[in-house]
Amino acid sequence: MKYLRALLPVLLLMGGSCVGADWRSELTPPEPGGFPILRPVKLTYGCGWSGLTAGIVEVNFSRPSVETCELYAKAATTGLARALWRMDATHEARADATTLRPIIMRQREIYRAQTVNTDLDFDDEGVVQYRETSNETNPARKKRYDFRDLYDLQTALLFVRSQKLQTGKVYRFVTYPATSPYLATVTVLGREPVKVKAGNYPGIKLDLKLEKVNKDMELEPHAKFKRATGWLSDDGDRLPLRLNAQIFVGSVWVDLEKVE
User: Fold this and answer.
1) Could you give the CA distance from residue 46 to residue 78 in angstroms, rounded to a whole number?
2) Cα-based distances in Å from 212 to 46, 64, 248
3) For residue 57, which of 228, 209, 240 has the smallest C-alpha distance?
4) Burial class, 211, CB count within 10 angstroms (exposed 0-12 / middle 13-18 / buried 19+)
5) Chunked in runs of 10, what are the mean pLDDT values of the chain (260 residues)?
6) Nearest C-alpha neighbor of 129 from the set 150, 156, 157
7) Would you give the DSSP letter of residue 99?
8) DSSP H or E segment with residue 93
């Protein structure tokens, strides 16, 4: 039942094959597109594994100032899944609302046997990661990763939804969701209606693929995530509506249940 932790890096992203040895030359320019930034909103998602409803995710997106945007999300297993595998998590992130560049991320995961805290501090050259696990004897250390134009989870979503999203268009960028960098490849598959608990929406269908960037700047398959299909609402909000993902335990899903 560890699917929810593996799914967390892709809940807010809503892929293509390896782009070759010189994959960095294929990255999408980091400038935001012309679509307006997301307005303040609270979103509630249900998620599950195969036919089992197993968790809930609440996402709050806010604009504390003209220059910044913030995301606060909390996730938890529910029902039978919680009885088998208890998990509670929070995710906080702040970004530059004009450039869509990440500033900080703070994530806390609480399990029965341990608590994991992950901090990310971004700058123009890359990111500094600090990760602490409660039951580890070795002291936690800071780790720096230098790569310009990195995205975290919040800004990856904001960057994608800011683009024109024409059918067939492919976007490639590097995201650092928690402990490692990944090449994300997002392909626009087309338009189709989407029905979720929150309502009926015109939808933009996207394919997502993640490949790990190793220390030699080579691409490797993601150990737990295979690929996913996501839908954004094709309207003035471009809300994440649905995500169907193939991960190491099988098929998982996330559906929008409520918009406030």
Assistant:
1) 10
2) 27, 33, 15
3) 240
4) buried
5) 45 41 90 96 93 92 97 95 92 98 98 95 97 86 95 98 98 96 97 98 97 94 87 98 86 95
6) 150
7) T
8) strand 87-96
H or E stretch covering 127? strand 126-133
The type of residue at 65 is S
pLDDT score for 9:
45
pLDDT recorded at residue 20: 46
13 residue type, one letter: L
Give dist(CA 238, CA 157) in Å, integer: 10
What is the predicted pLDDT for the residue at 180?
A: 95
How much is the pLDDT for 21? 52
**Whole-number Å distance between alpha carbons of 18 and 192:** 27
Which tokens sit at 221? 């398959």
Q: How many residues does the chain have?
A: 260
Q: Which two tokens stand for residue 65?
A: 């100032």
Q: Cβ neighbours of residue 27 under 8 Å, at least 6 residues apart?
A: 149, 172, 173, 174
Mapped to the 3 state alphabet, what secondary structure does 226-242 carry? EEEEEEEECCCCCCEEE
Q: For residues 43 and 241, what is the distance between their CA atoms, to the nearest angstrom?
A: 10
Cα angle for residues 169, 104, 216 (degrees, 5° grid): 60
Torsion over CA: 108, 184, 226, 222 (sign): negative
- Tokens describing residue 13: 């992203």
What amino acid occupies position 207?
D
DSSP 21: T
CA atoms of 196 and 255, how far apart (whole Å): 6
Please tell me the predicted confidence (pLDDT) of residue 6. 47
